[in-house]
């Protein structure tokens, strides 16, 4: 059974009349890669700063290895933080930057040299010890920042959007490196990002946040395939989200048609929203399609075509297909019961009914 290394219990953070965190509760197990994912201003960095000790919770408890650490200063906690801007010292070379924390804690000189070498080797920069910071690329600076964090042998590494300043290719390369590094070290990573692809690629568990709250926790596949509400479905990847209602278990109605689905446990005629991912829509002839749409435009994305189309009620549909079509073509769309994910409608029924009437006119 995995051991809990960090736990937050009913944590709130308030700034005057603004509540940045609302009743945050979660546990992080030792040796796993966690991601806090959400838009800017949702509270994910505030959680990181609260765990690190850079900010105090207004109420609630932060536990580390079972012990409350709310009143323990940041420099006494057994964790380190990697920042978005690297926070390297420009007047020190690579070795001196990585060794800084060890020297501060009066580690013996021989041990400092050994641990710095080991940390630089882990990030594949052991030949760069004497380089000046100004001589490094963005990706190299990021790896030096990580080496400086892991040289202290923390039990937890906090990473605050550390890849956001890198170009697309380097960012993807660093995703592989970070995941590999976490697995090799066997320590807990808590990673903050607003990039959905980044979170899905690297994480064991994802916490999806919005407006100071954790909306859903799960592994990447669960988060992508089983979003809990409209926000999660819309934020995690690309989605077609359609209002409808459950006719009965395993049967759903939307856009004036009734379809077999894989969901059950809701009330008969309960208002719902249906999520269909673009890659789950299959293009066919209009007469064979469950729905008919008119193609507006398409873009070639390398391994698939991204097609934008509209149905007869002028609702937008996004389709990913390996087959090209033509602008203004009428095409059919088909999908199976397992290609639809049904969510309870989380707005008022009045608003739902007005939208539904628009679709069924």
TrEMBL record:
- PROSITE patterns found in the cross-reference section: ABC_TRANSPORTER_1 (PS00211), ABC_TRANSPORTER_2 (PS50893)
UniProt keywords, alphabetically: ATP-binding, Cell membrane, Hydrolase, Membrane, Nucleotide-binding, Translocase, Transport
Locate the ABC transporter domain: which residues?
6-236
Q: EC annotation?
A: 7.6.2.11
Cited Pfam families: ABC_tran (PF00005)
Q: Which Gene3D superfamilies match?
A: 2.40.50.100, P-loop containing nucleotide triphosphate hydrolases
Q: Which reaction does it catalyse?
A: ATP + H2O + polyamine-[polyamine-binding protein]Side 1 = ADP + phosphate + polyamineSide 2 + [polyamine-binding protein]Side 1
GO molecular function terms attached to this record: ABC-type putrescine transporter activity; ATP binding; ATP hydrolysis activity
Summary of the function given for this chain in its UniProt record = Part of the ABC transporter complex PotABCD involved in spermidine/putrescine import. Responsible for energy coupling to the transport system.
Q: Which family does it belong to?
A: Belongs to the ABC transporter superfamily. Spermidine/putrescine importer (TC 3.A.1.11.1) family.
On assembly, the entry states: The complex is composed of two ATP-binding proteins (PotA), two transmembrane proteins (PotB and PotC) and a solute-binding protein (PotD).
Any idea what this protein is called?
A: Spermidine/putrescine import ATP-binding protein PotA
| Name of the coding gene | potA
